Amino acid sequence: MPGNIDPIWSKVGDIQAVGVSAANTSSQGGGTIGSDIFLAFQADATNGGYVREVRWSLGETTIGTASTATVGRVFVSSVTSGTTTTSNTHLIAEVGLATQTPTTTLPGVPITVPLDFALPPNYTILVTNSVAPASNTQWKAVVIGGKY
Amino acid sequence: MDQPIVFLSPQSVAGQDGVQVVDDVSHEVTAVLLSDGTPAPQPCSYRSADA
Fold this sequence. Notes:
The complex is a heterodimer of chains A (148) and B (51).
Chain A: E1 12-20, E2 22-24, E3 31-32, E4 38-42, E5 49-60, E6 70-77, E7 83-84, E8 89-97, E9 111-119, E10 124-129, E11 137-147
Antiparallel strand pairs in A: 1-11, 3-7, 4-10, 5-9, 5-11, 6-8, 6-10
Chain B: E1 2-9, E2 17-22, E3 29-34, E4 45-48
Antiparallel strand pairs in B: 1-2, 1-4, 2-3
């Protein structure tokens, strides 16, 4: 008998986010969480979670500042803190985050990365940028999903 | 434009200062250098010095 014959639906929405404040030139998943690889989403500890998308949004403390072009990377990992390695953290998407200069009349443009999969309990979505952000700017990775 | 940075890894350069060189027109990074002007080891990680 199968473990679950019903479709799995999340019981409640779950939105988590992190700002990326450092550069990590590697795309292989190595780093230190909170230092050069950033925890954007952690699945429910008991039942796991569903992740629909990562939305990269540019924030600026001084509007009108040009952001530095970078690559936004998204990893799935079994690690929640400390050091990550290529054996436990896996690249699942890269997207170009081209320079943007939002103004008081010209909005920034979020970049969406579809995910659409279930995460086991406590698994995480980690993110990095390939270069450091310009002063007064920061890319934030907003993960939209749910808790099972 | 040179953006001051501080290296986080690898261990051989962690804590050292450097610069991220950004093209003023394209806003793309053209080089990441140690304070002595030599290219940073790859892979590496770093943050802005003012972060």
